[in-house]
Amino acid sequence: MVSTCPQCGAVLSADAACKDRFDACLLKEFELAAYGAVHHLTVPCYLLQHNGYSAEGWMGARALLFQFVHGGLAPGEARRRNRNRVDSGHRSWSVTKGPRLPGVEQIGWTVTIADVRLDTAEHYVADVRRWAESVLADSEALVRSGPRSSQPAESAA
Fold first, then answer.
1. Angle, nearest 10°, between helix axes 121-145 and 18-31?
2. With helix as H, strand as E and coil as C, how does 53-66 read?
3. Residue 44, SS3 per DSSP
């Protein structure tokens, strides 16, 4: 028997949930450095697909994911660039609290966390990168037609 995630459409066994799969991914990433090499992709992919960010946070996290995937931005550089802008004492918006971005629930996600293999670091890294590319492609129409964040591209996440 299988179940389908109402947020991302992942097909999982009946006794599993996306959150369980996400937790298993994070455990691998924290235990083994080779898996952790894509942590900066795993978290935004999961939260973007599950609309876990505020509207401003969603747009900013997607822009940051785009910079990671297509702009060659390294996580350390992103932290350095955004240290003050994302500091909760310096921003007037919340990354996760507040109204959600409308339209996310209408996206047909082509790759989900259920498609990420955990068996080897090589598979895992390749799958997470493919997932990140698909999240960007699948959400492109919403970003082009939807509301724009007032935050700079790298300021969320």
1. 130
2. CCHHHHHHHHHHHH
3. helix
> Using CA atoms, how far apart are residues 75 and 101, in angstroms rounded to an integer?
25
103, two tokens: 């339209």
- Predicted TM-score (pTM) of the model is 0.86
Q: Where are the domains of the chain?
A: 2-145
* CB-CB contact of 45 with 139 (8 Å): no
Q: In the block, which residue shows the tokens 């959400």?
A: 139
- Per-residue pLDDT of 79-107, as tens digits, reads 888 776 666 677 677 788 899 999 999 99
Confidence of residue 149 (pLDDT cuts 50, 70, 90): very low
Q: Quick count: other Cβ atoms within 10 Å of Cβ 67?
A: 17
* The pLDDT of residue 107: 97
Single out the residue of 73, 69, 68, 62 nearest to residue 139, CA to CA.
Answer: 62
Q: What is the mean pLDDT of residues 106-125?
A: 97
Closest CA to 138 of 101, 108, 106, 102: 108
